[in-house]
TrEMBL record:
Keywords: Cell membrane, Membrane, Transmembrane, Transmembrane helix. This is Amino acid permease/ SLC12A domain-containing protein. The keyword Ribosomal protein does not apply. It comes from Candidatus Marsarchaeota G2 archaeon ECH_B_SAG-G16. It is a multi-pass membrane protein. InterPro entries: AA/rel_permease1 (IPR002293), APC_superfamily (IPR050367). The keyword Membrane applies. GO terms for molecular function: transmembrane transporter activity. The chain crosses the membrane at residues 12-33, 54-78, 84-102, 122-141, 153-172. Pfam families: AA_permease_2. One of its GO terms (cellular component) is plasma membrane. It is found in: Cell membrane.
Amino acid sequence: MVVLIGLGFTLWTAAGAIFNLITNSRCILAWSFDRVFPEVFGSVSESFRTPVNSLILTALISWVFLILYSFFVSVVSFMAGTTLGYVFTFGSTAIAAIVFPFRKPKLYKRSGADIEVRGVPLIALLGAGLLVYFALLSYALLTNSAFGMNSPLSLLAIAAFWLFGIALFFVFKWHQKRKGINLELAFNEIPPE
């Protein structure tokens, strides 16, 4: 039984690593595409048809955290907060899905996602459902200490990652503005496919 549990934990960790590599590297690619991260991470390899530079950066950051996670117990508590951080991140995406059709109706109509159910945008309905799910999940994670996500260190991790991301966005926005690039214009159009 111990071997099976160990094997399960190992495979779960590998699955988590794959999820993080794919998801985080694509986030970095999108940030670079939107000019809020260095352009080198926005390139896609002709040979592999993947964002190799973003994958390498994600792998390097993941390895650093994996080493910290493996050898320092306090980092385990710190990293537990990242799960809740993901929930908050995807929750903000759900909010964006809810408001998008109403805040940018012309853009919504051109998006290809302009499907309605009884006059209500489907994307808004799905966003609302996802938001309810994430609210319930957040409640469970924050109120049950067995998950390890409501410790002060975990909550610090969430705040630190969010604040770092927001600060990074404004640094790049300022940097692009100095170069004469208005980032606001990038968000007025849907990128080409």
